[in-house]
Amino acid sequence: MHRVLVTSAVAYLLMMGAQTVGAQTSPKFFFLQFCVGCHQYDGSGLPPEVPSLRDDLSYLIGSPAGRDFMLRVPGVIGAPGSAEEVADLLNWIVGTFYQGETDSPPFTAAEVIEGRKRPMKDPIKERLELLASY
Fold first, then answer.
1. Per the structure, how many domains does the chain have?
2. Per-position b or e across 53-78, b if 16+ CB within 10 A of its CB
3. Which of 3, 16, 20, 28 has the most CB atoms in a 10 Å sphere around its CB?
């Protein structure tokens, strides 16, 4: 009987935790959960391995290859939110940290869905290859 009660209590707590996480779907919440460990709270990153989100992102958000890269970064692609929530996260990052001007369109759920089909195997290598193409 004691074992059943403990198992039930653990299951309930896990379920309540999942509901709490699911209820907090703001882009900032996702950033704090999945991006801040590498990109830091202020978006400054850990250069050179982890780029700053405050620097010029125009080469990323303004090109198909750069947008594809941003969509497929492990913290982005691995975020458990819906495609719309992940698109909102990327748009929040650009709007919150990027100091420059951009006429690039916002990220879309359709882009996230496509990006999730091709997870990144080596983010540093792919970033270096992308930068070399500019």
1. 1
2. bbbebeebbeeeebbbbbbbbebbbe
3. 28
Domain that holds residue 86: 25-132
The tokens describing 41, both together, are 């709270």
pLDDT of residue 51: 85
Residue 3 placed within a domain: no
Residue 14 resides in a domain? no
Which residues in the chain land under pLDDT 50? 2, 4-21
Q: What is the dihedral of CA 35, 40, 44, 45, to 10 degrees?
A: -60
What is the predicted pLDDT for the residue at 44? Answer: 94
How far is it, in rounded angstroms, from Cα 2 to Cα 122? Answer: 47
pTM for the predicted model, two decimal places: 0.77
